[in-house]
Amino acid sequence: MQVLRWQERETPQEQDLYRRMQLDGLKPYSWSNGPGESYAVHSHNYEKVLYCVRGSIRFVLPDQVDTTGNRGVIDLAPGDCMVLPAGVRHSAQVGSHGVTCLEAAR
Hints:
The chain has 106 residues and is mainly beta.
């Protein structure tokens, strides 16, 4: 699991993130969800590379529990990237302003 936080001053543009993913040899596609939408726990048989373009999204990793019993949580904002290994179970909750993401399988 890897999370790369957006460090630049300017808000990322979708086409710039798209090009960045292509330069990494990926074939990204865009998807969006409205405020509060959610995805039940599931996993993929491929490594998922995901950039948050607009809005926000929270990923919950039910199998990653810390010493206090809290589940792993990853909050993504514009420009943040998550690399999720194949087979890692996760659910997702879209933020209050919806979300647009770029995603690719590796």
